[in-house]
Amino acid sequence: MDITGLGSIASFAKSVVERIFPPKMTAAEKAQATLQLQELMEARENKVIDAQRAVIVAEMEQGDAFTKRARPTVVYAGLAFIFLVHVAFPIIAYIQKTQLPELTLPEEFWWAWTGVCGIWVIGRSAEKRGARDKIVQAITGVKK
Questions:
Q1: DSSP assignment of 20-89, as one string?
Q2: What is the rounded distance in angstroms from the CA atom of residue 63 to the CA atom of residue 66?
Q3: Digitized pLDDT (tens) for each residue of the chain, 144 residues in all
Q4: Can you give the pTM of this predicted structure?
Q5: Cα–Cα distance list, 112 to 9, 46, 58, 87 (Å)
Q6: What is the DSSP letter of 100?
Q7: How far is residue 13's CA from residue 132's CA, in Å, rounded to a whole number?
């Protein structure tokens, strides 16, 4: 399992070199081209990650306290919507003996909510284990 993503970059770079560069190239030239392409792709990936990290850090460093509570708010609001649609409304309809219209939460809700919950839970778990790095602080909104 390639957690870092570097393996996928290496295989992609090798496949690009094999498909695009001329077959007359020697194995050494292909290896050199593959390494150069890998370095360029890794540099690009690092810049993207650094930009994302900078945005998250800037968001957490601003004075607006709600921004730091936004993730838990999304988690709790999602739980409230799930409770309403799957518990409260059906119980009310059962008690009143009425037919409830088909209520479902959209697929986009589930994707967004599970993504936010997953990241928040991972960050909180790392924080509770003692991790205090910038990524955990960005996820949880807690400063050192």
A1: HS-TTS-HHHHHHHHHHHHHHHHHHHHHHHHHHHHHHHHHHHSS-HHHHHHHHHHHHHHHHHHHIIIIIH
A2: 9
A3: 444 555 676 777 777 777 777 777 787 887 888 888 888 888 888 888 888 888 777 766 766 666 566 667 888 899 999 999 999 999 999 999 988 888 889 999 999 999 888 887 787 777 677 766 777 677 666 665
A4: 0.45
A5: 27, 25, 22, 21
A6: P
A7: 35
Rounded Cα distance between 33 and 59, Å, is 39
Q: Which two tokens stand for residue 93?
A: 């309809």
Please tell me the distance from the alpha carbon of residue 112 to that of residue 94, in angstroms, as a whole number. 30
**Residue 33: both structure tokens together:** 């081209």
Backbone angles phi, psi at 7, to 5 degrees: -65, -40
Find how far residue 87's CA is from the centre of its chain: 29
Domain boundary assignment for the chain = 1-61, 65-144
